[in-house]
Specification:
Length: 213
């Protein structure tokens, strides 16, 4: 079990890193704009569930295998990028009446929203690389088994990430409400912005992901 001082330092470092704007933040804001605060929040929970999978995999040593395998890393990365592009194309092809008071005709189900967030999160293997690089700085042999320390540090990361990610999703929902109140071409432009954001994130994921040395 990490010491209180280690946990405090880790929490501050994690908060600062998670606060940095990144693809997950843009995705969750886009999800909120597309479906409202509830959809954004559920998508955030899906992303954090995927993060939990990577935490457990790190504790078991599986993320080191992923990072060391060029083929496995590339497959996961391109699968995630393809899914984001698919979401973008589907959003752009949506023929919903632009003057309707919502961006989409119906809110996705709870499972659908959570699943989309999970698939995007699990399709980002750079999370595994981040854990492999970040966690060892706060792990001490005298504090107990490495796997247990990884799980504790991972739980802290997930707790902080959940609060921030849900906030991003809800913020996107507030933007959606404002677009709906404006009427006119606001919803259509919002839908186009969401679709292009997804496609842009897919391209960024495919272009920038690199395997650890």
């Amino acid at each position: 079990m990490p010491s209180p001082s280690t946990l405090a330092a880790f929490s501050v470092a994690s908060l600062l890193l998670i606060l940095l704007p990144g693809p997950a933040m843009l995705f969750l804001v886009a999800r909120g704009v597309a479906g409202g605060p509830r959809v954004g929040a559920l998508s955030a929970l899906g992303i954090e569930a995927a993060t939990a999978v990577y935490v457990i995999a790190t504790a078991l040593g599986l993320t080191a295998v992923l990072a060391a395998s060029t083929t496995a890393f590339t497959i996961v990365r391109y699968a995630g990028a393809t899914y984001l592009v698919y979401l973008g194309v589907r959003t752009l092809r949506d023929r919903t009446d632009p003057h309707a008071p919502v961006v989409a005709p119906a809110l996705p189900s709870t499972w659908h929203s959570w699943r989309q967030g999970f698939l995007v999160g699990i399709g980002n293997p750079k999370v595994a690389l981040f854990f492999l690089a970040f966690f060892p700085q706060f792990i001490h042999p005298e504090a107990g088994p490495v796997w247990s320390q990884v799980l504790v540090l991972g739980a802290v990361t997930i707790a902080i990430g959940t609060v921030l990610d849900v906030s991003y999703g809800v913020f996107g929902g507030l933007v959606r409400s404002r677009l709906a109140r404006r009427g006119g071409h606001g919803p259509r432009r919002g839908r186009m912005a969401v679709g292009l954001t997804y496609i842009g994130l897919g391209g960024l994921t495919a272009a920038t992901g690199q395997r650890a040395a």
